[in-house]
Write a structure and sequence with these properties.
The complex is a heterodimer of chains A (162) and B (236). With 162 residues, chain A is α+β, with helices and mostly antiparallel strands. In chain A, 26% of the residues lie in helices and 23% in strands. Chain B has a single domain, classed as Four Helix Bundle (Hemerythrin (Met), subunit A) (Up-down Bundle), CATH 1.20.120. In chain B, 43% of the residues are buried. The chains are: A alpha+beta (162), B mainly alpha (236). At the A-B interface, helix 1, strand 6 and helix 3 of A face helix 2, helix 5 and helix 6 of B.
Chain lengths: 162, 236
C-alpha cells in the first residue's frame, strides 16, 4: 500500500472513531445527564431526599404570590397534568419569568413538601416572533400538557396521551 | 509559492465585505425589527445577531480547521497545516464572543450568567479544545511534529461539535432537557432571520480576512530562510 493511501486510511478510520465517540456521548447525555426533574418525577420520589436538584416545569396561572414584607415569592410549578409543586424563593425573579411560562429552579425540598429555590431561572423556546403579531393571531389558551422542562409538546394531536 | 501574493490581494476585499455585511446585518437587526418578542423578551433580544453569528462561526471554523488538518495529514502539505493553525485563533475568538454574549443575554433573560446546562457545557468544551490545539501547536518547537500532533488533537476534538447540536435537539425533548433553547430557525420571524444571516456572512468574511492575514504571517515566519521571502518588499 502506498504511504499516502495508508494515511487516507488512517484519517478515515480516525473520523469513524470520532463519529462513534460523538454518537456515544450524545446517547449518554440523554440517559444519564439528569439536568432537571419534572414535578411528576419529584412527586414519585425519584429524587433522593435532601439533595439539591433542578425542578423544571410551567409556572401555574395565578399562582405567583409575593410577600408584602420581605423578598419572598411563592409559585406553583406544574406540568398541566395535575402534578404540582410549590416553590419558595428569596431571590429576585428573572425578567422573562412569567406565569404559564417555563422555568428551571435549583434547590431542595423541605419537610412541608415545598421546593426551596436558591435560584430561579426563566426558560424560553426558540420562537422569535414580534409581540405585535401575537394579538393578531390571538392564540387559543387552553393549557396543554408540557414536556419535562416545561416546553411545548410538538407533533402531538389533541387529546393524545403521553 | 503563489498563495502569498494571492492572499495579499484578497484580504482587502474580504475586509471590505466583512465591514459592509456586518454593518448591514446589525443595522437591519437593530433598527428594522420589532422591539419586543412574543416570548416576553424586550429589546435585549437583539444580542441574538452577534450571539448566533459568532456561535455558528465558532463551530463552522472548527470543521474548517479539521478539514485543513486532515488534508495536511494525508498529503503532507505545509500550507494546509498553516491554514489550520491560522483558523484556530479566529475560531477561538468566535467561541469567546459567543460565550460572552451568551452570558450577558443569559443574565438578562434567564437570570444567570452561567449554568451547567448541556448546551453551555459542551460549548465551553469547544473553547478548551481550541485552546488545547493552540497550546499543543506552540508547545512543540519542531513545526513538522507540532503540526501533526495538533492536527490529531483537532481531529479528536471534532467529536464535540455534533454533541453541541444534539445536546438540545433530540426527537424526544424529555430526553434532553436543558435551559438553553433548542436550535431551530423554524419559528424565527423572517425579518430577524435576515439580520442574523447577513451578520453571519459578515463574520464569515471577517474570518476569511483574519485567517488569510495570519496565514501570511505564519508563512513569513516559517519560510524566512527561503530566497523568495527575502526578495519580498515588506521584508526588506
Amino acid at each position: 500500500m502506498k504511504p499516502r493511501n495508508k494515511r487516507v486510511m488512517f484519517v478515515v478510520l480516525a473520523l469513524v472513531m470520532v463519529g462513534a465517540a460523538s454518537a456515544l456521548i450524545s446517547t449518554a447525555m440523554k440517559g444519564n445527564l439528569n439536568y432537571l426533574y419534572a414535578p411528576e418525577q419529584v412527586l414519585a420520589g425519584e429524587v433522593p431526599e435532601g439533595t439539591v436538584f433542578r425542578l423544571g416545569g410551567l409556572v401555574k396561572k395565578d399562582s405567583l404570590k409575593r410577600s408584602e414584607t420581605e423578598l419572598e415569592a411563592r409559585f406553583i410549578v406544574t406540568d398541566n397534568r395535575g402534578n404540582e409543586i410549590t416553590v419558595v424563593t428569596h431571590n429576585i425573579l428573572p425578567d422573562l419569568f412569567q406565569e404559564e411560562k417555563s422555568q428551571v429552579s435549583r434547590g431542595k425540598m423541605n419537610d412541608k413538601g415545598e421546593f426551596i429555590a436558591e435560584e430561579v431561572l426563566a426558560k424560553h423556546d426558540s420562537e422569535y416572533m414580534p409581540a405585535e403579531l401575537k394579538d393578531v393571531l390571538a392564540k387559543e389558551h387552553t393549557p396543554a400538557p408540557v414536556n419535562v422542562d416545561g416546553s411545548e409538546i410538538k407533533n402531538m394531536t389533541k387529546g393524545q396521551k403521553i | 509559492m503563489n498563495f502569498y501574493p494571492l492572499a495579499g490581494k484578497l484580504i482587502p476585499i474580504f475586509w471590505l465585505a466583512a465591514i459592509v455585511l456586518t454593518a448591514i446585518g446589525l443595522y437591519w437587526g437593530f433598527f428594522k425589527t420589532a422591539d419586543a418578542m412574543d416570548n416576553g423578551m424586550k429589546e435585549y433580544y437583539r444580542i441574538i445577531y452577534v450571539h448566533v453569528a459568532s456561535a455558528w462561526m465558532a463551530m463552522w471554523l472548527y470543521a474548517v480547521m479539521v478539514a485543513w488538518a486532515m488534508i495536511g495529514l494525508i498529503f503532507n502539505t505545509r500550507l494546509s497545516f498553516m491554514m489550520a493553525s491560522a483558523t484556530a485563533i479566529t475560531g477561538t475568538i468566535m467561541t469567546i464572543i459567543a460565550l460572552v454574549t451568551g452570558a450577558i443575554w443569559g443574565k438578562t433573560s434567564w437570570g444567570t450568567w452561567w449554568d451547567w446546562d448541556p448546551k453551555l457545557t459542551t460549548f465551553l468544551i469547544l473553547l478548551f479544545v481550541y485552546i488545547g490545539y493552540i497550546a499543543l501547536q506552540s508547545a512543540i518547537d519542531d513545526t513538522r511534529r507540532s503540526d501533526k500532533a495538533s492536527a490529531l488533537l483537532a481531529l479528536v476534538g471534532l467529536a464535540i461539535v455534533p454533541v453541541i447540536y444534539y445536546a438540545v435537539n433530540c426527537p424526544d425533548p424529555n430526553q434532553c432537557a436543558s435551559l438553553h433553547q433548542e436550535s431551530s430557525l423554524k419559528r424565527v420571524e423572517s425579518n430577524i432571520l435576515i439580520g442574523m444571516l447577513v451578520t453571519t456572512l459578515g463574520f464569515w468574511m471577517y474570518s476569511f480576512a483574519t485567517i488569510l492575514m495570519r496565514a501570511r504571517n505564519i508563512i513569513l515566519e516559517r519560510e524566512r530562510n527561503t530566497s523568495w521571502v527575502s526578495k519580498l518588499n515588506e521584508v526588506n
